[in-house]
Design a protein that fits this description.
The protein has 817 residues and is of the alpha+beta class. It has six domains: 2-72, no CATH class; 79-168, Alpha-Beta Plaits (2-Layer Sandwich), CATH 3.30.70; 321-417, Calcium-transporting ATPase, cytoplasmic transduction domain A (Distorted Sandwich), CATH 2.70.150.10; 423-494 and 747-817, no CATH class; 504-523 and 639-735, HAD superfamily/HAD-like (Rossmann fold), CATH 3.40.50.1000; 536-627, Calcium-transporting ATPase, cytoplasmic domain N (3-Layer(aba) Sandwich). The strands form six sheets. It has a seven-stranded mixed β-sheet with strand order 17-29-28-27-18-25-26, sandwiched between helices. A six-stranded antiparallel β-sheet has the order 9-8-10-16-11-14, with no helix packed on it. Strand 8 (321-325) and strand 9 (331-335) form a beta hairpin. Helix 14 (426-456) packs antiparallel against helix 15 and helix 14 packs antiparallel against helix 16 (475-494). InterPro entries: ATPase-cat-bd (IPR021993), ATPase_P-typ_cyto_dom_N (IPR023299), ATPase_P-typ_P_site (IPR018303), ATPase_P-typ_TM_dom_sf (IPR023298), ATPase_P-typ_transduc_dom_A_sf (IPR008250), ATPase_P-type_domA (IPR059000), HAD-like_sf (IPR036412), HAD_sf (IPR023214). Keywords: ATP-binding, Cell membrane, Ion transport, Magnesium, Membrane, Metal-binding, Nucleotide-binding, Phosphoprotein, Translocase, Transmembrane, Transmembrane helix, Transport.
Length: 817
């Protein structure tokens, strides 16, 4: 190979052709030969070119003018462009740990061994925090420290392994899918046509239809079969050879190694028999094996596309342009990626919101089904938060932009989905390791089979070994876990449920106790005044006005119902003070000019004036002066409409339900009695919730459901945790599952979907193991011909794939959870 590269002039750098320093400079090995370079920079670039397999750069570059020659191949120059900060803003974001992360689309991955190789190699780069590869979606989720490593270094590392990686762009995914589909269709077409022709000849030869013909005519049929099988071997089977070569290079054997060995061996032996006109030919096995394998890969490609379409469709929903208001109130059309925080955009009815923002219009009716899975439009009031990708339904809207591109909720959901697809449950990891180990054992078994059969019947040794290689290929085992996991992620996404941690699929099966927060989880978080008790000498209008005036100074959720009271009376307050978590106190100027101290808040807040309030259990908000209790209010939180039936479903599953809340005991008791919850703990601080979860975890795994910022630690502590789309950022970051649809009933669908996925995953692995173990003695005994082995292996893989596709069916809406 070295002889094909032009030498640099004496005394010149091999890379840049500039003069070498007096000390001779540095040296680098390119094309198996030592080359002299002038500096460390040229040495590093030359090493990269060698590692990337881009030696043709030296072979074909124009060296007539050393001052104008390129110093980097075009392939590497293109990768360097991805280091530009402005370009990276379109596809990178900060992950939960503050690292820069992105999703890469990788071409050429065929199995779990490819994913393992890329993961291991990327993690050797200094500055790469993690790399998670999903062979099913052919994506890499990678996080890195920009000050230590560049994105182009990551792309070059993957390129050096023989794969092509670029930042994932949802807008081009459909084109990529069509190109890859054509890639398989062409190869399937050639293999299919050749298989039909070769099989017609093989049937005639096998069943003695040409016995009466002479040997020359039989050899003629063999040559015809060779003619049809050759393009199948050289063109259609290319994907298997490339994958096998990569795995051998990585010293991590994959399933395409025995496949390639079987194809090349069968073709080579058949071609030799054709030339010498003696022996057996199996061109039909070569063609059929290739055809069936390609059909299986094609169906797998279709399943992958179906699985990742939901996430990619989210990003494609964004419009290319937006209507932005200028300083003088006019409108200008601008590319969405040019919007910045603070811009004001207008969205017409029927148009998609281009960015996250604050609603400036009085009202807006917006369809958020693409984010939450809920088809009923949501009516938002002025000041509400609205999201990119949602659809304006009725009237023109004005929106102040608060987040664009990768900072939008929609982009974060897509990132969560990519993260979920990249993560693998422990059972899936075990299945992948088992498949890789099986390949090594298969090759050893094939060698032993050949050795034994050379003594039993030498003429059959090769064909029996070939049947062993084909029949026992662990394709079904390698497909068993990824297809099932991808299927359940797709199913949950359609229901508006984001699975952040795929280990939750297995963990949910072991959970015995579900602990739930009250406010915002079991209840809606929207409070209302359920009951009022006034003193006999107090007018309702006066009490209403006084309570409304006092609560107007509070941001506590319990204050909102008072601020919405319809009161026409005016009240003058001075010296207002707020006691956090207790209530509000002020001087009330009465109509006669007297100042009276007045308080509203928890019963204990006014207990120093009225000690009997320490025993108050029926009302949770008290309005009082030192002389009298003016009014007692019962402010309650509305239960979610689907909580009772969902909790009934959980009990049917044998789960114990415990409520943890920071609310007062009497409020906790009321909600617990309404929902039939026998065990609850009130007035819980975050550390108290942690205590109860840890204590229960000593007996069995625990699931925690909450939505508040103070629930973040306990959500992280639980074995599996769930929150909602409206939850605080800390809660969403800590939870394993996020229900974007914001209804408690999502828990029932989560349990059903994960239970079904576990069943299908176990069925897939059990079937794959049963087939591979059962077929081994049959193949070793020589009872399976190569073409029957090809059919058996392909059918086994297709069964696993079809079984996993059951997860893609939309589940019927249950009448009773």
């Amino acid at each position: 190979m070295g002889a094909n590269l032009p030498e640099s002039p004496n005394g010149s750098c091999f890379h840049c052709l500039q003069p070498l320093p007096p000390n001779g400079g540095y040296s680098v090995t390119v094309a198996d030969k030592q080359r002299h370079v002038c500096c460390y920079g040229c040495q590093a670039v030359a090493q990269t070119i060698e590692a990337q397999g881009l030696q043709h750069f030296y072979q074909f570059r124009d060296t007539s003018n050393p001052l104008q020659i390129p110093l980097l191949p075009e392939e590497l120059q293109q990768l360097e462009a991805y280091d530009q900060e402005e370009l990276q803003q379109q596809f990178t974001h900060l992950d939960d740990n503050g690292h820069t992360s992105t999703t890469l689309s990788v071409e050429g991955m065929t199995c779990a061994a490819c994913a393992w190789l890329i993961e291991q190699q990327l993690q050797t780069l200094p500055g790469v925090d993690y790399a998670r590869v999903n062979a099913t979606t052919e994506r890499v989720n990678v996080a890195w420290h920009p000050e230590q490593v560049k994105l182009s270094d990551v792309l070059k590392k993957i390129s050096g392994l023989g794969y092509r990686a670029l930042p994932f762009q949802a807008a081009t995914q459909e084109q990529d899918f069509k190109r890859r589909r054509r890639y398989f269709v062409r190869r399937i077409g050639i293999a299919g046509l050749a298989t039909m022709q070769v099989m017609m000849i093989a049937v005639a030869l096998y069943f003695g239809m040409v016995d009466e013909l002479d040997d020359n005519l039989r050899q003629f049929f063999w040559w015809i079969s060779l003619l049809f099988a050759t393009p199948v071997l050289l063109y259609s089977a290319q994907p298997f050879y490339l994958s096998a070569l990569r795995s051998i290079q990585a010293k991590q054997l994959n399933m395409d190694v025995p496949v390639s060995l079987a194809l090349l061996s069968a073709y080579g032996a058949s071609a030799y028999a054709t030339v010498i006109n003696h022996g057996e030919v199996y061109f039909e096995s070569v063609s059929m094996f290739t055809f069936l394998l390609l059909v299986g890969r094609y169906l797998e490609l279709l399943a992958k596309q179906r699985a990742i379409a939901t996430a990619s469709n989210l990003v494609k929903l964004l419009p290319a342009t937006a209507q932005r208001e200028t300083a003088n109130g006019d409108l200008e059309s601008i590319a969405v990626n040019k919007l910045t925080d603070g811009d004001i955009v207008r969205v017409l009815p029927g148009q998609t919101l281009p960015a996250d923002g604050e609603l400036l219009s009085a009202l807006g009716t917006i369809n958020e089904s693409m984010l939450t899975g809920e088809s009923v439009p949501v009516v938002h009031e002025q000041g509400a938060r609205v999201f990119a990708g949602t659809l304006n339904q009725t009237q023109p809207l004005r929106i102040r932009v608060t987040a664009v591109q990768q900072a939008t909720v929609m982009a974060k959901i897509a990132a969560l989905q990519d993260q979920a697809l990249a993560n693998k449950p422990k059972l899936a990891e075990r299945a992948e390791k088992l498949a890789n180990q099986f390949v090594q054992q298969l090759l050893i078994l094939a060698a032993l089979t050949f050795f034994v059969w050379t003594f039993i019947e030498p003429s059959e040794a090769f064909w029996v070994t070939l049947a062993v290689l084909v029949a026992t290929c662990p394709c079904a085992l390698a497909l068993a876990a990824p297809t099932a996991v991808t299927g359940v992620i797709h199913r949950l996404n359609k229901q508006g449920i984001i699975l952040r941690n795929t280990d939750a699929i297995q963990t949910l099966a072991t959970v015995k106790t579900v602990m739930v927060d009250k406010t915002g989880t079991l209840t809606t978080g929207q409070f209302s005044i359920a009951d009022v008790q006034l003193e006999d000498n107090v007018a309702q209008t006066q009490a209403w006005a006084l309570a409304k005036a006092l609560e107007s100074h509070s941001e506590h959720p319990l204050a909102k119902p008072f601020q919405q009271l319809d009161s026409k009376s005016s009240v003058q307050l001075t010296n207002v003070s707020v006691a956090l978590g207790r209530g509000i106190e002020a001087d009330w100027q009465q109509t006669d000019g007297n100042l009276v101290r007045v308080r509203i808040g928890a019963p204990g807040f006014s207990a120093d004036w009225h000690p009997e309030l320490n025993k108050e259990a029926d009302y949770n908000v008290i309005l009082a002066t030192p002389e009298q209790v003016i009014a007692r209010f019962l402010v309650t939180d509305t239960l979610r409409p689907d909580v009772a039936e969902t909790l009934h479903f959980l009990r049917q599953q044998g789960l114990e339900i415990i409520m943890l809340t920071g609310d007062q005991p009497h409020n906790a008791r009321r909600v617990a009695e309404q929902l039939g919850i026998s065990q609850y703990h009130a007035q819980c601080l975050p550390e108290d919730k942690l205590h109860w979860v840890k204590q229960t975890q000593q007996q069995h795994p625990v699931m925690m459901i909450g939505d508040g910022m103070n629930d973040g630690p306990v959500l992280a502590q639980a074995d599996v945790s769930m929150t909602f789309g409206h939850a605080a950022d800390l809660a969403r970051q800590a939870a394993d599952i996020v229900a974007m649809r914001n209804d408690f009933g999502a828990l029932a669908e989560l349990l059903r979907a994960t239970a079904k996925s576990r069943a299908i995953l176990k069925q897939n692995i059990s079937w794959a193991l049963f087939y591979n173990i059962a077929i081994v003695p049959i193949a070793v005994m020589g009872w399976v011909t190569p073409y029957i082995a090809a059919i058996g292996m392909s059918v086994s893989s297709l069964l696993v794939l079809v079984n996993s596709l059951r997860l893609y069916r939309q589940p019927p809406t249950p009448k009773d959870p």
